[in-house]
Amino acid sequence: MVNDNKRFQGRCALVTGASAGIGKAYAEGLAARGANVVLVARRRDRLEELAQRLRAEFGIHAVAVAADLAHPDAATQVKAETDALGLEIDILVNNAGFGTYGPLHQVSPAANHAQVMVNVGALVAMTHQYLPGMIAADRGTVMNVSSIAALQPIPYMSVYGASKAFILSFTEALWLETRKSKVQVLGVCPGATDTEFFDVIGNGEETLFGGKVSPSRVVDESIAALDRRPPSVIIGRRNNLTALIPRFVTRAAAIKFSGAMTRPRTEHSVPAGGMANPPAGSPVGAPIPTLRSGR
Questions:
Q1: What is the spatial distance between Cα 4 and Cα 222, in angstroms, rounded to a whole number?
Q2: pLDDT by residue for the chain (295 residues), tens digit each?
Q3: From 26, 130, 156, 160, the catalytic residue
Q4: What is the Cα–Cα distance from 165 to 148, expressed in whole angstroms?
Q5: 160 flagged as catalytic
Q6: N or C end of the chain: which has fewer CB within 10 A?
């Protein structure tokens, strides 16, 4: 884990989707760099376990805040809890998210509604809650985890790709709005990452194009990018090259290319409702309790 000479010593970071994958790696990476951390996700047991380990390993303050970010009031509730704890959040990592897979007509409407609420609604709401304080203090960092899926439409993951395109557009607009302040805003665009993402969408990694990178690489490269103050960063050289494709072909050709990568290979490729392993008692295809973003 890169230390960066404790560059975030004494600062307080809030990470959504912190129970696994990229979110967990951000929590670890920020703690290693001296930040106190607030861990937000649905699974309190995982959060408490991680918080305890980070406190012991890095000597920082770590707290767990359990929240269902698909709920419209979740961001308000999280802010109320951090206020009650007397915490001033000056690093916000909006990472929580998940995907569904399959032709739209085969995907559960409930799953896609929850996907939009988590990937888009919660991210905007969390930014509304914490960005004003950063502007007032004239310091802070907002890192929103998008994806290379934001760079062109993604057939068979249409809502997921559209949600990531929203995140990238929203974040880059905020980058300009905040340029005259000392607040940093960065959109992070990983490609396929070694997380539970493919387990969640349940397609057996059929949408995988190229190898997967480690979550810690996403964290290290995005934190390093803060020094350059770009509006967004694409993680990995291969993904930077792939991102150039839509610039040199027609829109239709780019869509056909991405569709060839993501199309179901067999009749068993698409899980019921577009989600793998829905929880007992939930609508078919409703998102399972873990919130994570894997690409």
A1: 13
A2: 445 658 899 999 999 999 999 999 999 999 999 999 999 999 999 999 999 999 999 999 999 999 999 999 999 999 999 999 999 999 999 999 999 999 999 999 999 999 999 999 999 999 999 999 999 999 999 999 999 999 999 999 999 999 999 999 999 999 999 999 999 999 999 987 645 555 445 455 545 455 677 899 999 999 999 999 999 999 977 766 776 677 778 889 888 888 988 888 876 677 777 776 544 334 443 333 333 344 4
A3: 160
A4: 9
A5: yes
A6: N
